[in-house]
């Protein structure tokens, strides 16, 4: 229970519910994902100016496609199934 030097060990987090994270935590995580994606897009625009011709087009393509990808990635979350649930498919019913 104790680490070296008799320092107390932090307790392990245990969830006793299948409730989702709070909406504010979920929104802050999604905003952070979107911000990181937009910073990568900004880097692609800068690389478009700096890089030589063949690589320039790859960076420009990244800058054009990243807004779509950023929105899809940022909106991923808050699925309908609870954290503890599992989706079970009955293989016998799908064969018949």
Give the overall pLDDT as a whole number. Answer: 77
Q: Main β-sheet, in a few words?
A: none
Q: Give the CA-CA distance, first to last residue.
A: 54 Å
User: How many beta-strand elements?
Assistant: 0
How helix-rich are the residues, as a percent range? 55-70%
* Poorly predicted runs of 5 or more residues: none
| Strand residue content | under 5%
Number of helical segments with 4 or more residues: 3
Can you tell me about this structure?
The chain is built from three helices and no strands. With 96 residues, the protein is mostly helical. It has a domain at 23-77. Helix 1 packs antiparallel against helix 2. The chain is elongated and about 55 Å long. The mean pLDDT is 77.
What does the secondary structure layout of this molecule look like, with pairings?
Elements: H1 23-50, H2 53-75, H3 91-95
Outline:
The chain is mainly alpha-helical and 96 residues long.
Keywords summarizing the entry:
elongated, mainly alpha, 3 helices, single chain, 58% helix, 96 residues
């Amino acid at each position: 229970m104790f680490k070296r030097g008799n320092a107390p060990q932090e307790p392990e987090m245990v969830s006793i519910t299948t409730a989702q994270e709070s909406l504010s935590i979920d929104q802050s995580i999604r905003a952070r994902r979107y911000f990181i994606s937009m910073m990568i897009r900004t880097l692609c625009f800068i690389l478009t100016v700096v890089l030589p011709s063949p690589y320039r087009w790859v960076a420009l393509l990244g800058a054009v496609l990243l807004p779509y990808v950023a929105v899809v990635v940022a909106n991923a979350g808050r699925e309908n199934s609870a954290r503890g649930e599992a989706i079970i498919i009955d293989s016998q019913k799908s064969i018949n």
